[in-house]
Design brief:
The protein is α+β, with helices and mostly antiparallel strands. The protein contains 6 helices and 3 strands; from the N terminus they run βββαααααα. A 3-stranded antiparallel β-sheet has the order 1-2-3, covered by helices on one side.
Length: 154
């Protein structure tokens, strides 16, 4: 994943103002953190107010930027079909499968998605199995322990 991410939003009808977001990847949190956010009034748009700034969908915009960056830089994780992933999962928790568990988990975490739930859905396995495979991936050193609480990831 790229260390720095720049997201420029122009003329998006779902967003009140044009926006530039600079984010940086934190290797400690395994997340992008917004370092700068700048809003611009559109010529035909309303004034920038505290209320309009609170309505900015910052997380959604960041997620869209992350999706683009990850799809270009994540070794095809987002472009791998569910069928291909189900075929990988059929072999059980092999080293290769656990590498995919780690990839899926990390990408979901970065995207603000529930990681274990994402692993289960993408691999076509139960949540309980996904939880066990995530633990195995950590135990075997292919998944870094993240700072989030396990119970909160769905």
């Amino acid at each position: 994943m790229p260390r720095e991410l720049r997201i420029e939003v122009r003329d998006d009808p779902a967003v009140e103002h044009d926006v530039d977001i600079d984010a940086e990847f934190s290797v400690w949190e395994l997340r992008y953190e917004v370092k700068r956010l700048e809003a611009f009034q559109r010529p035909e748009g309303g004034a920038i107010t505290s209320e309009s700034l609170r309505r900015l969908p910052v997380q959604r915009l960041l997620q869209l930027g992350i999706d683009l960056a990850v799809s270009l830089d994540a070794g095809g994780v987002l472009n791998t079909s569910d069928q291909e992933l189900a075929d990988i999962a059929r072999h059980g928790p092999t080293d290769y499968t656990l590498l995919w568990v780690a990839r899926l988990y990390t990408i979901a975490h970065v995207r603000f998605d529930p990681p274990t739930k994402t692993v289960a859905e993408r691999l076509g396995i139960t949540h309980r199995t996904a939880t066990y495979w995530v633990k195995l991936a950590r135990d075997r050193g292919v998944l870094w322990p993240l700072s989030t609480e396990e119970g909160s990831d769905g």
